[in-house]
Specification:
The protein is α+β, with helices and mostly antiparallel strands. About 30% of the residues lie in helices and about 20% in strands. Among the domains are: about 5-220, no CATH class; about 360-525, no CATH class. A hairpin with a 2-residue loop joins strand 6 (about 155-160) and strand 7 (about 160-165). Helix 1 (about 5-30) packs antiparallel against helix 5, helix 4 (about 165-175) packs across helix 5 and helix 5 (about 180-205) packs across helix 6 (about 210-230).
Length: about 575
Amino acid sequence: MSALDPITLGVVWGALQSIAVEVGTTVHKTAYSEQAREGQDFSVAVFDPEGRMVAQGPYSPGHMGAMSAAVRNALAAHPVETLRPGDAILLNDPLLGSGHFPDFFVTQPAFHEGALIGFTVNIVHQTDVGGSRPGSQGVEGIFDYFQEGLRIPPTKVWRHYEEDAGVVGIIAANTRTPEKVLGDLRAQRSALRVGELRLIELAQRYGRATVRAAMDEIIARSEANVRAAIAKIPDGVYTFEDFLDDYGPGTEPLRVHVTVTVAGDGVTIDYAGSSPQTPSGMNSYINYTRSYSYAAIKCLTDPLGPMNEGALRPVTVTAPEGSFLNPRPPAGGGPRAIISYRVFESVLGALAPALPERVAAAASHFANPTFGGWDRARNRRFVAYELVISGTGGRATRDGCDGMGWAFNASNIPVEAQEAAQPIVVEHFGFIRDSAGAGTYRGGCGIRRDLRFLADEGKLTNLSERQRFAPYGIFGGKPGRLARTVINPGPDEQIVHGKQSREFAYGDVISFQQSGAGGYGHPLTRDPARVREDVLDDYVSRDAAREEYGVVIVDDQIDEIATAALRARRRTA
């Protein structure tokens, strides 16, 4: 039993959460890049003096699950006794962090009256860190990570609040967008300073011993809650498999095979049987694979509780060394984000028989392309980053969501932000009719986003999925429609492979037409009134209402007699 009174514990917990959010808000408001400022492709957390995560902001599981490993690796290189106020450690090594070079992790200690009281940590996905393709996320032509950009081992970039000009100069010299990268890096550092000050204020108010005791209690309770929730899942061995389309044009699919073993109050997730590592950028280092595995279990067990060191302890994640979910260095990993949904969904798919009321069908897959070229209007080179995020899968009691992140909390980048900062005109941004998987509860719709580039020497690094293997439906739900990418959509359109690197010309339109999400439950059991609403809202066509759902719409009304007869014939068939 905790020696802390519950009110003090609650206030300290609220303060730690608030610190994490304030650090994140500072990054959000001061970052230079569109993906950080608008897409929220960053994460933050607060750690205790031992380097255990205590509280985190509401950002990306891919970062958060890897952040504990990143902090351990930073402190292994720079032990606590060597740290002083104002020091900050930067790393982006794929094996030590979250699997690719663009993720810059910065760890900063906080001291109160000379004693270490914790760490504030954040990570921002940087626009470009060099390598063979603008954006540093190429799939094709990559056979090791030396082709993907600048690798930074744990390095003190700040000492006693002073920036190391030499290290920062090396970073600036190895990116196509130094103003954005240095702007975001300094935003990270400023945000951590805010977190440091708030931790000091918390220690001054309650005392170091009380804050430390509260941290211990929060971690212990989080672990107990997750273990209690796991113990309610029937013990057993649950398996599932799905496939990524490929690892570049002309290559074979990548198999994701997972075995989830539930025993008592613990879970083991094993990816034995998955495809070997690839001679491309399509690999997920083990920290990243763990991250989305942790996230899936957390969503299914204790979704509203704190996500910290305690919540991770009941879950063990393994993948064969040399598989594409645990590659040996120096395997490429720049585009590893495209693997995240498949890892997350494989765990949900495995546990669907045990937890049918909690799981969802597969989501629409996002696109994360990057572009580079010459901006003739601004007389400069540019690198643009895009997120095209579509729908989530149907659930046990409601439809999937439209236009919302699934396994992470990033957002579609606003049209206005892209057009203001880049040589881009967004000509189409909307839902794709009949793209969602039919079901008792349908999936979310795919999104189409067409970008016209007013740029010369254009280079596209496509990063998309579900062009070959549709998002699955569950419990009788139908899969969503496949995705596609085309240049200059229309009669003479050119199909672009989901992981292709290619050039484009001034004025070309690149159209990202994302897959729809899978449905939950058999479509013939969907309420006809809801089918009518979808037709009126243009999510579903009249033809699809008839063919997929057995609902006949005439003059915007349900023909109940024809619908009953059609559904009866379909059920018999």
